[in-house]
Amino acid sequence: MEHIKLLHCCITIYLVIQLGLNCFFSASVKVGIINGTEAEPHSRPYMVSIQLQEQHVCGGFLITDSFVMTAAHCEEHFKENWDKVTAVIGAHNLKDNDFERIAVDQHYIHEHFTVTKDKVINDIMLMKLKKSTENSKNAQSIHIQEKKKARKRNDKCSVAGWGCITTNGNPSDVLMEAHVKIIPPETCKEQWSFYNDSIMLCAGGLHHGFCQGDSGGPLVCNNFAVGIVSFQNKDCDHPQQPNGYTRITGFLPWIKKTIHGTK
């Protein structure tokens, strides 16, 4: 059976406090950019660092002025501590404080989200912020893909985050990015038995991709967010399986219902 690494750092509050942002291997859930480069500062104004007690836990991205999209499995870190969860907007270097921190008002996890040690399904969550980012510095939402499009083999896309840059390594203070290629669905199905092409897609992972700490970040193709960082092989440096993403177009009715239902 595949052993899934759900992509984030520091599984409990205790470990966040004791270990800071050191990323470590966990049998349950953890992603960072592998073989990537530092992003041009503020070139990805939609990127969000989702933090617990002001420590980076997961990535996310603005899809409206008030909503952040991320992975549902990130919620395991927050549990009963949502009052201590914030979204860091407009950041590049998480150490320089040149960003805005906004509290989370509500979070919405897909009702059929399922995660076990061998699979993750419907891995999507929306977070409504307590204030709009309309006038925030270096912040702008990204368009999500609204029609399922058969991405061509080897389509060039990109992924970014503040996660670990090696397996069990340290997270990055600055936003990192990597270019990745779309993996054909038949190849992904061979490598991940639970793969469902209507709600998932694969890209990168063999040479460039994500590691611990990037869960919830976007897969971007042609300036559209098409996927959400979801699952990976436990070895970021020498993975035997492609990186897995939640396919955003598989959840459009739920996304629209959730956003419009909260206004």
What order do the helices and strands follow? EHEEEEEHEEEEEEEHEEEEEH
- The total of helices stands at 4
How many domain units? Answer: 2
CATH architecture name of the largest domain:
Beta Barrel
CATH topology of the largest domain: Thrombin, subunit H
The structure class reads mainly beta
Brief overview, please?
The protein has 263 residues and is mainly beta. It contains four helices and 18 strands. The protein is globular.
Write the layout of secondary structure elements.
Elements: E1 4-6, H1 13-19, E2 33-34, E3 37-38, E4 47-52, E5 55-62, E6 67-70, H2 75-78, E7 85-89, E8 100-109, E9 114-115, E10 120-121, E11 125-129, E12 156-161, E13 176-183, H3 185-191, E14 200-203, E15 209-210, E16 218-221, E17 224-233, E18 244-247, H4 252-261
Antiparallel strand pairs: 1-17, 2-15, 3-13, 4-5, 4-7, 5-6, 6-11, 7-8, 8-11, 9-10, 12-13, 12-16, 13-14, 14-18, 16-17, 17-18
How does this model look, in words?
The chain is mainly β and 263 residues long. It folds into two domains: 47-141 and 253-260, Thrombin, subunit H, CATH 2.40.10; 142-250, Thrombin, subunit H. The protein is 11% helix and 33% strand. The chain has four helices and 18 strands. It is globular and about 45 Å long. The N and C termini lie far apart (43 Å).
List keywords for this structure.
Peptidase_S1A, Peptidase S1 domain-containing protein, Thrombin, subunit H, 263 residues, six-stranded antiparallel β-barrel, serine-type endopeptidase activity, Trypsin_dom, mainly beta
